[in-house]
Structure formats: C-alpha cells, structure tokens
Amino acid sequence: MKIIADANIPFVAECFSSIGEVITIGGREITQSVVADADVLLVRSITQVNADLLAGSKVRFVATATIGFDHVDIDFLQRNNIGFTSAPGSNANSAAEYVIAGLLEACHKCDISLTGKSIGIIGVGNVGSRVAKKCAALGMQIYLNDPPLQRQTGQGKYLPLQELYDCDFITFHTPLTFEGIDKTYHLADEGFFKSLKKECVFVNASRGGVVDSEVLKTVIQSGRLKAVVLDVWEDEPNIDAELLGMVDIGTPHIAGYSLDGKISGMIMIYKAVCEHFGLSPKYGIEDFLPEPVVRQLRMESSTGNEQGALLDAVRKIYDIREDDNRLRQIAEKPEDKRGEYFDGLRKKYHIRREFQNTKVFVEDRNSTLAQKLKGIGFKTSEK
Q: Which residue ranges make up each domain of the chain?
C-alpha cells in the first residue's frame, strides 16, 4: 500500500509505516502527479482535495488530520467511491486553549477584567462548546449562536446572531461555507461590525474568509473595537501584512497546533485507515506523546490579581506572544517570500502542550483561582 502524507502531520511516517510505504511531502506540493499511483492520501487543511487533484489516480481513501474538511470535495469522493475520514474534535481543546490565552493576553494589554463580561460564541461545535465551558469557568456570561444546531435541537440557548451584538467579546468558531442559509463567507461584514457593541474585543480562530478583511481594517482604524485577535487570514499563506500590523494579537493559523491535538488527529485517521482496509492498528496516542516540559506549577492563592495569576500560569504553558512575534517578522520579508515564511511557521511549529498535562499546586484548592485553573483545563491539587 502506498501512502502519500503531508509532512506536517507529526509522526505520520513512523505510525503509518506499520501498514504501508509512506512518502511525506509538503502540503502545497501534493499534486496530481504525486498522488497518481497512491492508495491513500493523508492531508491537512492547506491541500485542496478535489477532482483536479484526484481524477485518474489510484487513491481509494482520503483522510484529513483536521477537524474541518472544507478543503475536501466530499461529493467527488462519494461519486468515485473513495473513502474519507476527518479528525473531529482532535484539536478542539487546543483551539479552545488558544482562545483563552488570547483573551487573557488582550485583556492584560487593554486592562480589562473577564469576570462578569459577556462573550458571544458564533459556532458551537467541538471548539465553540469547549470555549463556552472555559469562559464560563472564568466567570463570563455566555451567549451562543449556531443556526444549524438550533434547528437540529430546538434549544433556546442558541440565539439569533443579533442577540450577540451587545456582547463585550465575540469569537468565531464556524466552518467556511459559501452558499445556503448558513453561509459564513464574510459573515463578519460591514453590517456585522457596525452592529457590535462599541469597544468589543473580536477574536477569529475559525477560517479567514469568515471575516471581510478590508472592512475589518476600516473598523480597526475607526477605533470601534477594543482589541482584535486573529489566528486565521484571508488568502493564506499570502496574508494581509497591513491588517497584521493593526491587530493586537496575530498568529499563523496555529490555534489547533498543540502536539496533543496533532497526534490525536493522526491516530484518529490511522485507525480509520486501518478499519477501511481491514487491518489491525499497531499504535495508539500514548506511543507518541512525550512527557510534558512543565509537569508542575506552584502558585499562591491570588490576593487581588487573580486574572494576572491565570495569565502567568497560561504563559508558562503557552505564551501566545511568541507566536505573535514570529508572525510579525513577516513584514521584514520580501513580498514574494511572505507566503513561504507563513507556511514555514506552521511547518516548523514549536512543541506546544495542553494545560491538562500540568498539575498546578495552589495554597487553597477551594479558592476561585484553583477553580478557574481547573475550569480552563489544568490539573489542580493542594500545595
């Protein structure tokens, strides 16, 4: 069995070599000629999987090691009897932790308290639902918008979009869709931004095309938003450097890039490929996850600056400022090299572990600080 795999899927060669010959290649270098005689294709989000790529190939199974699959033409795969799987939920916790890190950092920069503030979460799937739980643990008021889920469940907790406009924070966690009643392309348009509460903090860690970048630049220049956190951009990897210079935190589409999430996604598609071809999987996630660098933290109960203590704990595990600083160096590159630099930041992304791998010892385990640390994902214990 011949397997073509995106080289940015960690340990993919080590794992999948148990079932076939693995050839790794950059995601943007996966072409029709590369996959022509492959049996299995393993991708991440930057590879467009469609008729242009697969027509005439031997590929019988496609897997994406990501939670989203808007880069895959599912209809084409079905028409051609090509199996498919994605990795739903695999990096959802990573993306949710990214949002928490971004919120804490933006609030530190702008001297804002999260407690008691309202947050509108647009898209309440695997990521959005986790963001909601973590933000609730931080004492925030949660407002949810997800029209498909509302129709599916009939639950009143899923509100019309206009009922989120008065929130102090807005964060997007939707797929990118271009048609139909739930179209999300440029959902954040001029009308959307004009309707938001003045000095709202805006976060997008879903897809770049959900936001009209030109409108966002105008809105930022007007001073209407308090802060902006962007992990995703229109026209990636050739992002708008001018917009990057305007936002408070900008990162290279890495919200879901924790090592935990990446390996989880890899194992999910590995097991799916094994099942499709009637093979027995040899490996599990425990075979590839290393010991965390920061296994323990010791903290005193906060005496007045609880949010600062939370930020300190989060920075020790994931300091979002480092990703922001790396991306801003794109402005120093020649324009024709910026896309390559953006992709390089993702391909060579540093090892980032999730909060759950670290136990925090707090003086008073019943303190609100301990409860909030546990609520955003840390293990907690008495000091």
A: 2-86+258-287, 92-250, 291-318+353-383
Mean pLDDT of the 333-340 span = 96
Nearest residue to 172 via CA among 223, 214, 225, 208: 208
Q: Are strands 83-85 and 118-122 parallel, antiparallel or unpaired?
A: unpaired
Cut 0.85: pTM above it: yes
Active site residue 236: yes
Among residues 236, 326, 338, 353, which one is catalytic?
Answer: 236
> What CATH number is given for 2-86+258-287 in this structure?
3.40.50.720
Q: How sure is the predictor about 97, in pLDDT bands with cuts at 50, 70 and 90?
A: very high
Tokens of 53: 């790529």
- Residue 299 in this model has a pLDDT that exceeds 90: no
CATH entry, 92-250, from 3.30.1360.130, 3.40.50.720, 1.10.10.10, 2.60.40.420: 3.40.50.720
- Long-range contacts formed by 124-129: CB under 8 A, 24+ apart: 124/149, 124/158, 124/173, 125/92, 125/149, 125/173, 126/67, 126/88, 126/89, 126/92, 127/67, 127/92, 127/95, 127/96, 127/173, 127/205, 127/206, 127/256, 128/171, 128/173
CA–CA separation, 54 vs 192, rounded Å? 38
Q: Which listed residue (173, 253, 326, 352) is catalytic?
A: 253
